[in-house]
Amino acid sequence: METTGSTSREVSPTESELYFLIAKFLSGGPCTRAFEVLQQELEQHELLQRRSDWQGDTHPQTYGNLVQRNPHVSRAHLLQVCERVGPLLDTQVRPSVPGVRTLLGLGRQSLLRHAEDFKKVVWKGPTLAAKASGSHGNMMPPVNYGHTPSACHVVNARQLLGVSKRHFLAPTSITYSKYCMHLRVLGHLSAVYCIAFDRTGKCIITGADDNLLKIWSAYDGHLVATLRGMSSEITDMAVNYENTLLAAGSVDKTIRVWDMKTLAPVSVLMGHSAMVTSLQFCPSARGSQRFLASTGADGTVCFWQWCVNTNTFNTTPIKFTDRSRAGAQLLCSSFSPGGTFLVTGNSDHIIRVYFLSVAGPDRIAELEAHTDKVDSIQYNNSGDKFVSGSRDGTARVWRFERQEWRNILLNMATSLPGKAHQLDTANKYFKWKVTMVGWDLHDKYVITAVNDKSLKVWDSNCGKLVHVLEGHQDEVFVLEAHPTDPHILLSAGHDGHVMVWDLQTGSLIKRFFNTIEGQGHGAVFDCKFSPTGMHFAATDSHGHLLIFGFGSKEPYSKIPEEMFFHTDYRPLIRDANNYVLDEQTQQAPHLMPPPFLVDVDGNPHPPSLQRLVPGRENMPADQLIPQVGVAANGEPEVMGPIPEAPRPRNEDEEAANVLDNMIAEMQRQQDVDMEDGEAHAVDTGLRSPPVGLRRSGDVEGVRRTHGNVTVSQQASDSDLVAWSKRVVVPDVEPALLKCDEDRRVRLGEEELARYKMERKRRPLPASISRNDSTDSERRLRSRKGHRQPLTHAYRTRTNMAIETSHSRSRSRQVPEFDSSSEVELELEQGGSGTETSEDEQVWDSSSDSESESSEYSDWTQDVGLPKERSRGDKQSQRQRKPPRRLDSSEEEDEEDEKPKTPPKSKKPKRKNKKPQPVIDMDQQMSLDDIPEEYLPPKWITDTKPRRSPYVPQVGDEVVYFRQGHELYVDAVRRHKVYEINPRKQPWHKIELREQEIVRVIGIRYEIGPPLLCCLKLGLINPETGVLTGGSFTIRYHDMPDVIDFLVLRQVYQQSVEANWQVGDRFRAIIDDQWWFGTIECQEPFQEEHPDSHFQCFNVCWDTGETERMSPWDLEAVPTEMELPDDAHTGIEITVQDWKAMWYDPKESEWSSEGREADCQRIIACIEEVMSLAPAEAFNAPVDLNCYPMYCMVVEYPTDLTTIKTRLENRWYRRIAALHWEVRRIEQNAEKFNESDSGIVRCARLITKILQEVIKDTSCTDAIAVFNRFAGEQEEVDVEADGEEEDEEEEEQRENKSKKQSSSKSRRPHARPVEPPDPHMWKRQCRELLNIMFQMEDSEPFRNPVDPLEYPDYRNIIDTPMDLGTVREQLMVGAYENPTELSKDVRLIFNNSKTYTPNKKSRIYSMTLRLSAFFEENIRQIVAEWRSAKKHEERVAQNRYYRKGLETGRKAARLRRESGASSTSSRRDRKTGSKTEDGPSTSSRRMQMEEDDDDDEDEEEEEEEEEEKAG
Question: In a 10 Å sphere around its CB, with 0-12 CB exposed, 13-18 middle and 19+ buried, how is residue 924 labelled?
């Protein structure tokens, strides 16, 4: 081994590699001197890896040698190795804090940890004291602490040491594992979706789909009372904070309020026109007037005012009606803990915030951050934030800060570091959804339930994912935080599991499974903690009540498994105010005698259990045995108690009895008189459903009693007085009630003070791409929604029923559209606000939808780009009315009224699109007669890509500046360029921020003067980058001295990233020259828009002039650029400067070959096309000297030279824009010429060739494409000419036959006005695809499957296909007939079934529905196409035979007259005739005619010879 004089030592290979990696890491950082010193010492001490020669001798290497030998090692190699060690180690030995990794960790956070180093140890009291070294601090357990010490050890440790942490003395994993199930009792005959504890925690209230509310004892589980009166399912219920009132909402559109003490009905509130979806008592405790808030499926929020002293309600609510579109519903609601705010979630993805002031409730904000329905929402416990969950797969934590509602995005697709999502492999098209949201007690965590059956715990302050709780086997709809312990969370779902979690560690403490003997498991629909947290109760899908808690089950042991009252399902009668009476006893339900306990079949329980009924505790034994009668179905039924034997009365009792009998007799007589009158009139027919026996009956086996009521069931006067004074639910202790009121008052004052303070604070500078989205308080649009109580955030049957019905109705909905795309409507501008503007008419009066009757959708039809849109948003913006505050009487009148006839306005006129002949127009006008304003402007015909003025292209993502648009409108009005109505601008229709990211989804030009560009702009969510569904329209043109208010998003982002500062030098383009200047200061252009970048810089040109500029107007001055000697002269822009301004396209905007390859290929093909004879008329712009009217008919002129030049200059930003412009060649020709003229046919041919060249990325020979399409075109022309000749001949024969047979009654031949068009199928298929795109079921099939999201898709599916691709191929003419299109569409459905074979999955159902809809409609299209083709073939065949027959007849007649020689001369003369079809067509036709004549001659000669021989 070769050695040197250096102090070298033996190092391991790993150590030498580490030295090298350290040096490599330092070489790329700021520590250059340290790198140099380290390199010298490594080479001096020979610490680097040595090399071996061919003889086996080793030699030292320098740092440079190793760099050359290891080119794959980057400077960040060591850093990357360190970053990957942590996740790999976490999978082997779990750290104490998951997700937190450090190279300097200790214990369980150390990267040197081993599994055997963390064995569980147990410390006893003396050990703990010794470990603490006698200090009286908190006892901290060791990292590997194993088991909880016993009580004696704890006491001993406290005597030795002092205080201790609560969770160390009573760990959650031990304490809450003691929960056990005390009772499961069947008390309802249908699913129970609602449960609540009263404020004392002594009673449990349940509401079910059997129309009943029941009150249970939380102490031993016995049934206390049943509340009847609802005529349909219970949707929600609430207990007021004073514990005196119980309110319940129902599907029957009513809200019933009962007195909790006596169970007497307090009020019946009828203000909704659809079912009640949520119910909330306002926590505000200011004054004696309180509010009960309710939301409905009719899209209304009602605030019912009531007095806390008298418990009386005002039956006329304060109502907010929001109807943005049909079917939108309120889904959830939540009060702030102080009662100052109410937030509601809606199916139209809008969150609305209501402010309850002294003057009453008022709506203050609408928050539009979600893109799908918001079906869960909840305020936190401190009142400064609330969380919303949506079906778009996100949750957002909202707070009001600096005059704005800001939010933190919680994306459900987020996973913990080092862990990937384990999704259901049966559902390949998985879409993230939030099913429920909740808070912990201290508002530290936000908990979301996700549709992947997991719970995710987030930090509420920063939005970081903390834990992922897994264990449920179905979706979770119940999240309940412990009322006293911030670490405990309760969850339950449809899998029947009830789980108790530790939020601190993310571990499962206790699991319960709701197993029902003989019926599998019951889905848990709701769950609640008691106020102390010692108990919690749950309800399931089978009607059970489950009670869990600590301690012994002994108090619950005597309760039977089934508990019903024998009067639960008796029919009711209703009066005009919707109050109810028991039909049999004619008494109010709360005044009836104590009922008997029975089981589910109606059999009474033993007398010992009858004493559990309130009012029967002290009855004699004989009164606990019910009287059993026979029901109408022949089965026994409990009728009431056995009548008591008469006992002797004294004189006072007899006298009182005589008076009572007289009163009873008078009452009975009055009832008899009214029996045939009003008594039947007030019976509305809304009665309790027939429920009773599960074994028999028409509905769930209901049993009803018929006949007279026994005397024992009639309450006496003394009984009525006693029952009216009974206390069923006790009051809250006055001290506790006072303490709770003070707390709510304090919270309300804090909320109000915080809100006022934030309203005064100046907003922070906003960036378009920021993660913290904001919404203005003035954004008040009308929608509808569902329900969510304040103290809980659970999913109920109401939610699922609404979602199911809503989705089904939308899946069956087929939007109507106008098939005509050439209709333009024009109205007077500048009229009253009730008139409809031209923009709104043309755009189909909808800002959220795209109609096929609009000319703005042409670009999508032409190029086949997929439309991104919000499902179901089809209501016109101009039809949206501002929210009104109505009372119930006004609302009822509004519901009953029919839609009023709109005010008469000027009737829209249809523009005549049929152009006049070219020769007539030329004779009428010359170029000098055309006003200059009508000539094509330079900004439209320019072929160089410029940043200003902005020329739109389809699919552009631009930044819209409202300030600039307002300046443009003012300038147009000031200079009277054209009539414009400022009240019909987009900011008056929708709420627009100072700058919005939008996408150009429609382009249309209008001939002026001046020439206007009309754009339809779709709003883009800056966080997700997808269209939100909202849109608006604008009209503009390039106007001198008016700044562009549309800037390409790419240019805008580059300008913002430049981070211009005061004093920076810049250059800007003016008249194709560079001019130079300096930034002087930065300040907002308008004070009301402080965050806008529009014109935010004050600059000083080198000439001394000052001006306002925007960041995108400026460019940095290159260091190598020479400045002009004279500041008053500019520098010409070079070719390199023009190329630097080219748009940088995305990968998806051009083909896989890239823009450069596509442009070069298409340019070469266009040059070939320009050499063809049919393209001669389109090679150059139209000569306006020859055709001066062209500029007054065609709004956007283009030609092949212009397209070629623009391709050379990379003017097109995406291939879709090229498709759009090529299509204009055909459209312009059709608009200016007759539709059947030769130049129009040539335009169609050229357009078809170019579309094929652009679409086929492998096409390099345009001549071959021309030859293929030209042959088809000639066949069509020949057939068309033949049809014209046939029609003329047929008409002549018809006229001749009429003259000859005028005396006969003969029906004339009716020639069809419009024969079947074999090309009509293209328009029909386009309309069918557009309808399918608007259907909800088409959402997974609109765009190609993302290979990143579904990496195994290409392994299963060989030929992917989607509706967007089908529509694009249809637009460019890739399909020859509808059967080819049908094959591709059916391939989509076959791929879906192959990739998702689970027939129970949602995607499979969507596939079946959409496939059925397609087959039903395509069948008619194919049938019509085949009929048209057969008609076309018959016409051609008849023409062939007629020509042959006429030729044969003429030849035979001439042969008989002149002989065979004259026949030859006639052929020569016919061959020499000329046609108008050109040389190639005429020669072909002459050859065909000669062949036909020869065949006919031979046939006729053979026939003549056969006749002679015969």
Answer: exposed
